[in-house]
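Morning F.,

Quick status update on the modeling queue. The single chain you submitted on Monday has been processed. Sequence for confirmation:
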Amino acid sequence: RTPNPVSAEWNRERLAQAMEELETGALDKGAWAEALIRTDGDEAKAKLEYLKIRGAQGARTECAKGREEVS
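Structure tokens below.
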């Protein structure tokens, strides 16, 4: 198995940032729209989905940065 390039600490920080976005209303509009679509407009469920989406977005960004640094 290939180790996850994103550390658990980094993941916690990314999720904490996404939680703050939810709490302050400073949402990524595209991610929020996607979360609402995935949950058929259920805002309570959309909050959890938003965290998943933002966490995945951050992981993809971090992996891409790592590939650029290696090149």
